[in-house]
Structure formats: structure tokens, C-alpha cells
Write the C-alpha cells for this entry.
Amino acid sequence: MANSLSIPTRPLPYGRQHITDADIAAVTAALQSDYLTQGPIVAEFEKQFAAYVGAQYAVAVSNGTAALHLCALALDVQPGQRVITTPLTFAASANCVRYCGGEVHFADIDPATGLIDLAKVRALLETRPKGYFTGLIPVDFAGLAVDLEAARTLADEFGLWVIEDSCHSPGGFFLDSQGREQQCGNGSFADLAIFSFHPVKHIATGEGGMITTNDERLFQRLLRLRTHGITRDPADLLREADGGWYMEMQELGYNYRLADLNCALGLSQLARADQGLARRRQLAARYDDAFAQTPGVTPLAPGRPGHAYHLYVIQIADRKGLYDFLKTRQIFAQVHYIPVHRMPYYEGLGWRAGDFPEAEKYYAHCLSIPLFPTLTDEEQDYVVASINEFSTRIKN
Ligand SMILES: *Cc1c(COP(=O)(O)O)cnc(C)c1O
């Protein structure tokens, strides 16, 4: 079997960008235009991205972390306020609360999906009086959408806002209680949703991010916070303008803008997003089939409708062994994630090993294997054969 396999001519990381001639032409055109930043391509990218996820408003920002920070600011997170998120995410999902002086709390994951367990969120909420917690940040981990309808019901019962961290799930959806597809980031249930355009994500702009919402007031606030807290909009001015140059800095904001150059790349990538997503799903289905015959290799949440497959995660007893073995084959798997509460910074805030046992158990055995739109069938077969070879060796 292994002999008939062709050995890939390039290293295989867990994720990588796909840049086409059309992308390069789009960026070149932006370079030759009048605006490198603060020009019309930003608004066009926002408009098309909002339409892609089915939201009313979108705000392009410098990266996904800036998107989270602006969301926390727009929702007025104050020092001492308590916000709940999942321990199984990139640290930025939690850090945005800390930027505003808030306290991060965690609810453990459902091991069948890797998503925050809403029953555990409810249990946590019920241990305290209403008003003790102010917000919830669920994450569409690996590309599988959180049931935001259920999250919203819970949030309303306890007076929480909701930020959906959709970095892994552009194009993903969940089925609501009526069986309708609810697109990640469509603003139907969460107050705000955020995306990242880092090159390992579905859509690459170099660095970049997006916030989507259906809330006009939050949208206006985000626009101002993104650019130093400054407004020029005559309708929003607190004082009378004394000339055409007049603008007001009304609150403390940041420079979290995304340049036209980046948005030009984003627009070009967005035009191909559905193709990339279809290929991710096709590759995931091929992995599902292949590993159905591999004892000791357990895919996370296979065959779920609406999965956007940012990551393809397998669970295996000897995770380190497989990681090291794949590296010798030029296959660069990755681990997503070391649980946030186990980071030295968060341990410094009082969290400990054992606090969230499901996330910790998951972490001990998870591995994200190559999944990106340009991965060929042959390259994928090589990944599968390498994993099979490792798992047979272990057994003998
Ligand atoms: C990538 C990512 C972020 C941060 O995005 P950046 O653009 O890298 O700042 C936040 N949350 C999750 C779940 C991510 O995967």
C-alpha cells in the first residue's frame, strides 16, 4: 500500500493560505489606486462580508483580537465584570475581557463536540445571583457552530450579552429549533460576532478581522472605537462644527483599522470562499471515511451538518508520539488548544489543573492534521497512510 503512495513535494502544515493570480491582481490594483487605507475597498469588503454571513452590518478591523477587544469595549465591559467563555479556545477569546479589566470565568466543554457545554454554563450561572455574570463568549470550535439559539435563551434568562467567536466558522451554520440554517455570524442570536483573516483561517488578508452585528447602535459605536473614538458624522457631533475640518474625539478609541490593501485581498478571497469551504468539507469526509477503519484514531465530531472545518481534529492515545512521527514525514500537525486556564497567566489569576477536566482530557489526546483547500487527494492519502502506519506500529 505505502509503496504506491507518492511522497508530497512540499511540507504539509495543518493549515495554509491559498493565493491566486486573481488575488495578486486585486492587491496590485489597490496599490495603484488613490487609497492604500481608509478608501472605498474597506466599505466594499464590509458590505460583501456582511452579505456572505447574512448579517446587516460588518466592521473590518486589524485582526481578530482587535475585533474581540472592540466588542468588549462596545459592550462596556468594566473592571470586575465577569464573563464566561470556553477553556478550549485561542487565548484571545478570553484576553479581550482582561483588556477591559473584567474577570474571565470558564464553563467546561462537551467532549463529543469540543464546544462549550451550555448545560455547564447554566449550572455555573445558577450558582450565583442574577447580575453576577455579564457576558458569554462561545466559540465555534474547529468550525462547528455553537447552538446560539439555546445560548441566547440562556443569556436572556440571566441578562448576558453574547459575543460569538466565529474565527473558525465563516460559512458554517447550525440548525435552529425550526430546522432552519443559521449562519455563523448572522447576528440573529449573538449581539456581536467576530472573524479573523489570519492566513491559517478560511479567508486570508495577511492580518485582519471582522465584526458582524444586526444592532445599529453597536455598529456605530464600533466604527468610532475603531478609529480613536473620533466621529465626523454631523448627526453625531456633540458641538457645532466650526469648519469643514471639524471632528470630535468623543471617547477613548484605538487605531484598529484594516487597510484597503488587505481588504482588496479579502474581497478577492471572499469571492472564492464557498469553493474553499466545499473543498474543506470534501477533505473532512475523506478523512472520516479513512479513519473509520483505523483503530485508535477517533475524529472529533464527524459528519455534523454545517461544520465549516477550520480544523480536522483527531484524538489518539499517544498524541506526542504521533506528532513527532508525522514531523519526520514533513507533516506538521498542531495542537488546538492548550486550555486557556492552564496558561501561566491565567493560573496566576487562580485557575488550576483539574478545574475543567473535559477540556484537559481533550487536550491530552487531540491533534489537528492537515486541512486546507489546496491539499490534494494524494497529499491527504499520504497523511492518512502515515497515521495508519503509526497506529499499526503502536499495536505491534
Ligand atoms: C485566530 C483566532 C483569534 C484571533 O485572531 P487574530 O486575527 O489572530 O488576532 C481569536 N479566536 C479564535 C478562536 C481564533 O482562532
Q: What stands out?
A: The radius of gyration is 22 Å. The mean pLDDT is 97.
